[in-house]
Design goal:
Order of helices and strands: EHHHEHEHEHHEHEHEHEHEEHHEH
Largest sheet: 11 strands, mixed
Structural class: alpha/beta
Distance between the termini: 12 Å
Shape: globular
Number of helices: 14
CATH class of the largest domain: Alpha Beta
Strand content: 15-25%
CATH architecture of the largest domain: 3-Layer(aba) Sandwich
Number of strands: 11
CATH superfamily of the largest domain: Bordetella uptake gene, domain 1
Amino acid sequence: MATARVATVVSAQADPSAAPATASRDRRAWLAGAAGLAGALLLGAAPARAQREFPNRPIRWIVPYPAGGGSDFLTRIVGNQLAIDTGQPVVVENRTGGNTSLGAAEVLRAPADGYSVLSADNGTLVFNPVLYRNLGYNPQRDFAPVTLMGRFPLVLLVGPASGVRDARAFLEDARAYPGKISYASAGTGSPHHLAMELLQRQARLRMLHVPYRGAANAVADVAGGQLQAMMCDLAACLGFIRSGRVRALAIADRVRLPQLPEVPTFAELGIDGVEAAALVGVVAPARTPPEIVARLQQAIASAIHNPAVHRKLAAYGVEPVGGTPAQFATLLHQESERWDGLIRGLNLTLD
């Protein structure tokens, strides 16, 4: 499979804005490992000294998606502030291919010293282990969760040429013409794809899936009228919505979004259980010392919660988080339990 590799040094001067039983045991072990970070910090003076001195050289940050996408934007914004805060360069490297598995493999080959980390979304950590029989990595065994950087809320969109004015009309059309409405996604097995599959299951719809390589091209074709609909992350589609090139119909979240206060949630429309988001966090190789993982989390969370960074991410459509490793591990465990059954029920495989 073709790969692409692009590296960029992010510094203070850069402008980045331009098997079920086995899996269950693995998840429990992952949760226990993340929860044990606090205890590891009490083991002696040497780990404390390592934590204080980290980082003392450049950090290599792998993004398994192309430059310019949501994960890349989030990484560069946070990485820029991290470089300012620590005084060390952050080298952002786009390593694409294999539905993010090549970027994951690149980090696993690196020393487990905290100087090589991966921007990992729920595709990498939750969906891929079910979609691939021969993935080449086990997220629970091979990675240490560091922090969830942000949530990308998902929105149901249609193009202006569709003639559909609201979500109820869209749902009526989809029920009246099963298999006739085509929807785009950022790729088979992406959060965008699986969110629409979730909607179809909960609302008893049947539509035709057309996968793209990334959300940008997909939403552009919805805006251009080539496809009727899409479940898209807010970061990728907010500009299209504000310019009138696509119409937002419903939010796949518990509450309405402040950026789109007039757009209802699916629950408001009487369809429960349609909540989905693209989740982007940071992981390190599993053997990374707990005190270094803790220091990484503190530094990245501090960058995320910098007021200027926080405002920029929110304006772009990202919900900033910056939680603890244990919170990230718990979330991933919950996400796996939510999505495994849907993926297996659809008989989705990518190898």
